[in-house]
Model the fold of this input.
Amino acid sequence: MYLQATYCPYETSLKGKYDEKMQQHTKHTQAVMEIVKLYNGDVANFEFEKDFKLRGITFEVGYWRKANAIHHWFVKNVQDGNDDCGKYDVSEEKIDELIDSCQTLLSEVETAPSDLCYAGESWDSEDGHKNLTREGEVITNPEVAANILPTTEGFFFGCTDYDDYYLESVKDTLRIATRAKHLINMGFEIDYQASW
Done:
């Protein structure tokens, strides 16, 4: 599952308006260069507008693995219930809702240390199979999390427990959605797509 940002400097509404196109192109080229600086450090020594004609750019804003609660949120709030691995536009309003959901959840859930089971098992020569455990945290009020960003079951969807892995996916989502909001404000379009 990922969010991607796409930028296309020439809007169809500016067909035939050369000066406006060039002003928009310069503005957006500067925005792209700011993104390159943010994510990749220094920009190479070339004059972007003279050396290249920018037609568009697409890059990954964030990636999730087995964050089924986040996928469920996108299916419900962006994809109109269609869980079909399609690419869907994500509006600034929806990004704001996702940020708000993550912030609310992180401020309202409570956690406690716990031994958690891994999904798999390991061979123990003394008594056959035994469950593997790890130290972690569980959410002690999972009904709060389930009300805001509920987990969901599905093929390749991972664990549905409300634990530290779940919380980490929510924190990652907050970081990714905040980055997406910044990109929207710079003129990029944001898309969500899941694949399995």
